[in-house]
Amino acid sequence: MKKKFLFGKTWFFENFVPREPATSTWCFLIEKEIYSGESQYQKIEVFETKEFGRILALDGLVQLSTKQEFVYHEMLVQPAMLYYWVAGGRSPEKILIIGGGDGGALREIVKHKAVKEIFLVDIDKKVIEVSKKYLLSVSRSAFKDKRLKIFNEDALKFVKKYNNFFDVIIDDLTDPIGPSLGLWSTRFYKDILQALKENGVAAFQTAYLREKFARKARKKIKRISPFFKFHKAFVGCFPFDEHTFSFGSKKINFDKFTFEEINKKFKKLNLKTKYYSPEIHFSSAILPKGVK
Questions:
Q1: Where is the PABS domain (predicted)?
Q2: What fold characterizes domain 69-283?
Q3: Which of 154, 213, 221, 242 is most open to solvent, judged by the fewest CB atoms within 10 Å of its CB?
């Protein structure tokens, strides 16, 4: 993260992702620095801005904005939950969230009242503490949910403990820097599939549509998943391209679902969403020419 004093004011310039072209970045005007500190693993910052609300940055990379995070978190979680619901005719019961210390993915999971257990594994306890204190609008009351168990452990080791256990796994990692670097690997994706039940669904945040490391990640997930699909959405605090959300399963063929099936279940669940809908579910899977 670089702070520049321009036009008499202080601006945040986002860092570059390692091994990606360092040719362009973006910035925003800082109205107020809410928090700045270092955990054992990374630098954590929260800023107040006029256009984006509060922004969370880890090691100089923007993770969310409070005005736009709902697009990201709904698109990461709700397609996976609806895929599982419709395919199996029942609610997923055991959920694993990898990363997600800000609580946004957790908030989307707790909307599903039939879920019985939610495991959240995030190596950095400080991210959770900062988010609960300064980003309350993201998690709301989700961290108080009695179904939740939090593990501040290395997800690489944690996932290996489970076999055919989780109905839905949400991989909500930061981009491949710091503590997340080793988790963007084929080996880790295989471990996730191993921890997933045969009829389960795994969801992955896979960054920008055309970003080099993101394209590689989607190829890795597709290669090891019998069934694969990805959706996309524009998230304002990730301004260079549409963001992608990838889904893998051992048994569920994502291309077999109809609008009527998804729409019927969505209405029955009475989910309160601000962006995701059955219409968005299908339109977000339509890709531009030349993109796979």
A1: 9-250
A2: Rossmann fold (3.40.50)
A3: 154
